[in-house]
Specification:
306 residues; alpha/beta; Metallo-beta-lactamase, Chain A; seven-stranded mixed β-sheet; 10 helices; 14 strands; 23% helix; 24% strand
């Protein structure tokens, strides 16, 4: 496993830039369906139905390169309209170009926002959309997504597992295929290497033990690890057998990462939280437990310098 990681890192370009203005901006932290979720009228959702300030958007991040006036979106969520506006406030469209959208997989919260590039909405011209081979084939041959391709609203940019995409001399993105439900496409996370720091973004994955890469060793090679936090703990979904839902629970991840140093634990930032996850509730015992154990959780608007 470690040898694979070492080979993976050797593929990356040597990049450095003093006083970087390259950063990650967190645009959403909730699971695919957002928070509160459709038809959820339980107390944990009602608080957000009744107070709009408590609502959260589907999981997504952006990378902003202020040196070259470029911005990149990671996952096109159903909430992309609001997310692009938040990104516009920090990297205005009249100054920055959207130079790419990197998709992780074909589940609803990660690609359906592409619809906003179509002629019923933006009517975009050639937005580069980076996707793995099965995902590329799916978008090319299934409506309504194939219309985006035919009308050249988007331009599909095929990816290969573990092969870096050099976006500039100081920014590289590398897909990492991960185990996850693959009804319509494979699933990837991304490694993002900036001029000074690096990150991984893995919003969806099955249990860590199912992956050929040791996540603990991978965390040690980066400065930030934005990781799947769909569920906080077993029993969270009442009346359902959670053993058949293979996401790593936050509690499991924290136990697995217990031997990391304090500095390494602080690199871990949990993201992609189901509407049942108490990490969505400010001041909750779950948030306090994560912080007590030395980890972090994502907040919308969070900035991570690269």
């Amino acid at each position: 496993m470690i040898r694979r990681i070492a080979l993976f890192l050797l593929c990356l370009p040597a990049i450095s830039l003093a006083d970087s203005e390259v950063y990650i901006q967190v645009l959403g932290i909730a699971q695919d369906a957002g928070y509160p979720q459709t038809n959820c009228y339980q107390p944990h959702c009602m608080r957000a139905w009744e107070d709009k300030k408590l609502r959260r958007l589907a999981s997504s991040i952006a990378v902003v390169d202020a040196t070259l006036k470029r911005k990149y979106l990671f996952d096109a969520t159903p909430d992309m309209r609001e997310q692009l506006y938040e990104l516009h406030k920090s990297a205005p469209d009249n100054e920055y170009t959207l130079d790419g959208v990197f998709l992780t997989h074909a589940h609803m919260g990660h690609y359906t926002g592409l619809m906003h590039f179509g002629r019923e909405a933006v009517g975009a011209k050639g937005v580069p959309v980076y996707a793995m081979p099965i995902m590329t084939d799916y978008l090319s041959n299934n409506g309504p997504w194939d219309q985006l391709v035919r009308l050249e609203n988007i331009e599909l940019m095929p990816l290969m597992d573990a092969k870096p995409v050099e976006l500039s001399e100081h920014l590289a993105v590398t897909p990492m295929q991960v185990p996850h439900r693959q009804e319509y496409s494979e699933t990837v996370g991304y490694r993002i290497d900036g001029p000074n720091k690096s990150a991984i973004f893995i919003p969806d994955i099955d249990k860590w033990a199912d992956w050929a890469i040791d996540i603990r060793e991978l965390i040690r090679t980066v400065d930030y690890a934005l990781l799947d936090a769909t569920f906080f703990a077993d029993g969270e979904l009442r009346g359902r057998d959670m053993s058949v839902i293979k996401h790593p629970h936050v509690a499991e991840s924290m136990d697995l990462f217990a031997d990391l140093t304090d500095e390494e634990k602080a690199r871990v930032i949990f993201i992609h939280m189901n509407h049942t996850n108490p990490l969505l509730i400010d001041g909750s015992p779950a948030q306090k437990e994560v912080e007590r154990r030395g980890f972090r959780f994502a907040r919308e608007g969070m900035r991570l310098d690269l």
